[in-house]
Every structure is written in C-alpha cells, then in structure tokens.
Amino acid sequence: MTDSRRTKSQPITTARIERAMDILAHWMVKLGDDGVKCLPIYERLEVELDQLSSTENKMAEVFARAKRLQDQSPEPLRQI
User: Fold this and answer.
1) Distance of alpha carbon 56 from alpha carbon 14, whole angstroms
2) How far apart are CA 73 and CA 69, in angstroms?
3) How many CB atoms lie within 10 A of CB 38?
4) What phi and psi values does residue 71 have, to the nearest 5 degrees?
C-alpha cells in the first residue's frame, strides 16, 4: 500500500525557497525566544536562495548573449 501523502519530488525553485522562508519565519516568531533555535535553518535557506538566484541570473545572461550572437549571424560558430 502506498502512502497517498508522498508525491513526486518537485524542482527546487526560488519561489519554493521563498515560501519555505516565509513559513519558517512565521513559526520562528510563534516560538518566541525559542525561535532563535531555527535560525541556522533560515540562514541555510538564505544561502540556497542566493545561490539559486545567482545561477538563474547567470543562465539568463548566457541565453541573452547566445541570442545576441545568433541575431548577428545565422551561423556564428563558423566565424570563430
């Protein structure tokens, strides 16, 4: 018998990390003074968000650069 709560792994996205940070922040506030115990998790999510955002931004730059080159010449690789 399978567990109906189990779902396929979803890709990690900036939106999912942001949502996790929002939920964690909510619970940290609810916990009062004990909320500080969750700070390492929050900090880890910040690092993961920064890294993913950086990767997404870099890839956007790569695609823009490749498109510019393609727009300049129909066969850009032959000119290298």
Assistant:
1) 9
2) 6
3) 14
4) -70, -30
Q: Using an 8 Å Cβ cutoff, are 64 and 47 in contact?
A: no
pLDDT computed for residue 31 by the predictor: 98
Residue 29: phi and psi, rounded to 5, are -65, -45
Residues 8 and 79: their CA atoms lie apart, in Å, by: 45
Summarised one tens digit per residue, pLDDT across range 15-69 is 999 999 999 999 999 999 999 999 999 999 999 999 999 999 999 999 999 888 8
Residue among 13, 9, 10, 11 at smallest CA distance from 55: 13
Of residues 1 and 59, more confidence is placed in 59
Q: Can you give the C-alpha Rg of the chain in angstroms?
A: 21
- CA neighbor of 21 nearest in space, from 36, 43, 5: 43
DSSP state of 78: G
Residue carrying structure tokens 């690789």: 77
